[in-house]
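Example (one chain per record):
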Amino acid sequence: MGSNDRRNGPQDVDLTLYSLRKWAGLVCKGNPTALHFLFAPGTIDSPLWKMVRAHHETFLARDCAKAFLGFADDQIKRVTGEKGRGQKGQRVDLEEQFGYDVKAAMHSLRLLFECKELMTDHKITLPRPERDLLVEVRTGKWTLDRVVATAKDLALECENAAATATLPEHVDQAAISTLTAECYLKA
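Predicted structure:
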């Protein structure tokens, strides 16, 4: 397991647990990680979670794009040095090997692909259909200029997709509250 002294390795497992209430609050803000729970294969297989997933569109709105775009933009700014690297964001080894943080660059593009799909198709496909492209970025086969230009183009596509999406502008917090209350009552 990663720590302040050691990053995660290939054999480590990332595990995130939230109460339903906490998770719903994050989803209402468009949190990409929380939204993944709705679409990730192999998530909890319980009748209550099936009920939540059956109503997944309740958690989707056009303003979810803001969170994806903001997170992707922060990552790109860290990669280019326009913004600090963050407390745990220094990947000196990657910067020395490739000239920039290829992992953060890959995550930026992944977030933008997910955002565009969420706005156009109301879902996030996991694993990503662009896997090969993302692996190319992660393994340093793309120049930083190409990453930045692609991110800029994708961000514009996401903004356009959000502007024309058939999703509501904001999530219906009352409907989400009702659904989570039903889950708690059934539990």
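Caption: The chain has a mean pLDDT of 91.
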